[in-house]
Specification:
106 residues; mainly alpha; 2 domains; 3 helices; membrane
Length: 106
């Protein structure tokens, strides 16, 4: 009974050493991901980049994408306003689209 328990524990430790040892080796590899460059943001380049740098990058990326979406919404509302003809309801809808684009940025 005791011999089988010891052999199970030994096999478990050997398997853990085998699999965890390989993961420590792969931790030294360089990044295989290329992050898009964002104006004003530091792009993570190495594996030594700290977690706050990644969080800052993701925050700045989300601000950049949000600004692009708000700008696109504003432009879309402007185009709708231009092609509304003379319809007051279409102009009002286009103005609300433009104001929603600006408020979405805030």
């Amino acid at each position: 009974m005791l011999k089988t328990k010891k052999s199970k524990i030994l096999v478990l430790f050997l398997l853990l050493f085998l699999f965890l040892g390989a993961s420590f080796v792969f931790a030294q590899k360089s990044l295989e991901v290329t992050y898009p460059k964002i104006p004003g943001a530091l792009t993570p380049i190495t594996t030594k980049t700290a977690l706050p740098d990644y969080i800052r990058y993701i925050f700045q990326l989300s601000l950049f994408v949000g600004a692009l979406i708000a700008f696109g919404s504003f432009i879309y509302g402007g185009v709708r306003y231009l092609i509304s003809g003379g319809s007051p309801s279409a102009q009002k809808d286009a103005q609300s689209q433009m104001s929603a684009g600006i408020l979405g940025l805030i």
